[in-house]
């Protein structure tokens, strides 16, 4: 497959009105996911407070709208503690804090989140995670039911409302904490998942539905499906795309960077990395594997969408690869398909954060999603 410029996607995208600002976020590698070469651990890039703080503050200086603070029990450092430590140093950017439903009693979690929002002067956003709690396994339906109950309690308490719930997992009668968010309202819930249970939970209780890297057509189909699901609850959603990024001044340099990233990967180590996450067998992970199977000999599944990263990652397993014009055209094509926000990452995370900001972000219309 020839990896020709993706700018051919741009005219139709512009005609669809896709040039409205999108939220552009980066990724703080709290979950032991930072490399110079995939699958080759580097102690300097291991998850730690100083290293992840460095990525976060670089993104803030570079003008990103938000940054994802991921959560993984066996992987790296705690997201909530990190958010509290870094919040006073973040000057303008939002924090997208990953919180695992069920790990903490929701009323206490609400007080914690409200406090963080105060520390950020109202710039907290929340990534709802419904994976298994470490040490237990639940079937999909009850696990998402627990997530839904937790989300409803959090939303009510953060909106300043009392809660009376006699649920399957939560039975409580509680007034809202005195600590409140700056706006007095619940920050938006970003939520991803590809099973029917996950999609239904997102449709009924999330604000921003997140999807992993996929072809432009497939992303558009997912968004259309989720709009229909949300309409059944008389709700609307916004949509985000979580993907990796490899951008260089020329396409050939970007392709070389992609090859270099995989140049020292041991296949057995890649498989071990893919299996270590708690959600390594999820629907979303299976879809990423399908994309790799459909890709050409150079790991491209369509122009600009490279699946090689999935050889050593259990979650989002593809990257946008190209020169600045190609990357901008690809982002605009996703916007035309319905994407409102991008959560990007690249290896090593600080270097790619700064490179993307210099080559693309400065000329790409972006702004935080409206509350």
Helices and strands: which structural class?
Answer: alpha/beta
CATH class: Alpha Beta
Instruction: Count structural domains.
Output: 1
C-alpha-based Rg, rounded: 20 Å
Total beta strands: 13
Low-confidence stretches: 1-17
Number of helices: 12
Order of helices and strands: HEHEHEHEHEEEHEHEHHHEEEHEH
Shape: globular
Q: Any guess at the CATH architecture?
A: Alpha-Beta Barrel
Distance between the termini: 42 Å
Within CATH, the superfamily carries the name Luciferase-like domain
Write out the strand line-up for the largest beta sheet, numbering strands in chain order: 1-2-3-4-7-8-9-13
Strand content: 15-25%
Helix content: 25-40%
Reported for the largest beta sheet, the result is: 8 strands, parallel, barrel
Provide the CATH topology: TIM Barrel
Task: Report on the architecture of this protein.
The chain has 371 residues and is α/β, with parallel strands linked by helices. It has one domain (20-245, 321-328, 337-363): TIM Barrel (Alpha-Beta Barrel). It has helices at residues 10-15, 49-62, 79-86, 106-119, 140-158, 196-205, 216-231, 251-262, 267-275, 283-294, 324-336, 349-359; strands at 23-27, 66-69, 95-100, 124-129, 163-166, 171-174, 189-192, 208-211, 238-247, 300-302, 305-306, 319-322, 341-345. An eight-stranded parallel β-barrel has the order 1-2-3-4-7-8-9-13, surrounded by eight helices. The protein is globular. Mean pLDDT is 90; it is low at 1-17.
